[in-house]
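Methods: example folding runs. The two proteins below were folded one after another, and each record is reproduced exactly as written to the output file, sequence line first and structure-token line second.
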Amino acid sequence: MDELETTRRREFLKDTVRKQVDFTATHQSRGVPPPPLSKPAPEGALRVPLPRPGHWQGIRDVTLAAAIAGRRSRREFAPEAVSLDELAFLLWATQGVTRLLGAGHALRTVPSAGCRHAFETYLAIQRVKGVEAGLWRFLPVDNQLVRLGGDGDLGSRLVAATFFQRFVAAAAVTFVWTAVPYRMEWRYGAAAHKVIALDAGHVCQNLYLACEAAGCGTCAIAAYDQEAMDELLGVDGDEELTIYLAPVGKRP
């Protein structure tokens, strides 16, 4: 990377939202209605209800201090399946809705700039009790999973799309987060893309900490083939694009 490009990228990191955005010109300031909280489920697709928040079975009572101290990137997983309660807990910890605030706004278990929550959560499921293997998506408002496809070769496709990080294939389930940029652009315009990246860190750190209570391990992955991951999920790579992923499995 040349010196000019390095300087430009570092300046982007130093830019504040107030410096970058003309708040009189955003869609929010113009009275455009906010985009929906999440994508609708495909018509007629199979849905699986998740256990209600606070009613999960098998989640250990781990103190926050212990979870922080024990948090590690873990690349080895046991062959056993993750339970539906454990998966529901991990989904709630990363994108669970705690309070609906009206059209296009909700409080969740993670912070987000302007309460915009630009992410969708996809799940490449290989071993979850009571859930058929395949590609699913989390519906946070309904607290359900919706089935998107039954590709039996998900593990090897994920390995190829993550530049052959082979531990991905051993995961019980891989969380893949996409960003829907307009959800953040609606409020922040050109500054949206910096805060989307910041928000992704909040989400994945919650997964790490929640895994400590669920007896699971995870390892965040940001090294992936953008086009291959977007194609695997069936997203267009523009209005919605892969931004982060994390394989999860039971600890050996």
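Second run, written to the same file directly after the first:
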Amino acid sequence: MLPEARQREIVELVSENSGCSVGELAAMMECSKATIRRDLNALADKQLIERSHGGAVPATSVGQEQTYRQREVQNLEAKMAIAERAVKEVHDNQAVFFDAGSTTMQVAKQLPPNETVLTVTNSPLQSMELDDKGMTVKLTGGSLRSPTYSLVGPSAEQFMDRMTFDLLFVGTNAIHPTEGLMTPNEAEANIKSLMIQKSNRVILVSDHSKLSEQSFISFAAFDELDMFITDRSVTGELNECFEQGNVEVVTNSVQ
């Protein structure tokens, strides 16, 4: 395995396990402890992980990933306000893709039943929510990632290759002025990139906590978005990025 690929996998393992020892990483990566120590030092220099006694822990922001259950209760009122505005963008006879995530889940929950709308998702949780509304639902298939309850991997990507969507609601772990939209996991980045490529209109839904944050892997540039719905005004350098990308920014604050 090339050093770049090995280091990328190390960041994912450290993030998903909330920390790993040198011995654990050496066993999982099937390489020497000396190699792992060199990789950890290199990654720490890049601020992608933080060294700990005998191993590494996730960086404060980069590479860190909370579970879905942790995220679904955070900034809930803001996510509900975002969703209230987002559902107004859904129209009859559309094929609408819902990215896995706690904010997109709120959009699915607030979507009024509409028998003419075809819904598609890589989230088993959202598929059940949409099915309860009596809507037609398609799942991508793929491997389930337990931190996010999202379906990813080759099977999900093959499904995406065959499809086209009118509208996409996509979430993100971070919105960075120079790196764009970011996530801690490579498989998540791949499926998100495909969602965007296969959608005629892309709407980012994210609360203010993701603004000016940084994660591990970029999956979209600003000019790949059509609209950004959030709960607070976007200012400064980040606002300039959205303007240059010709993205309509809509703020729906918590009442």
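Comment on the second run: The chain has a mean pLDDT of 92.
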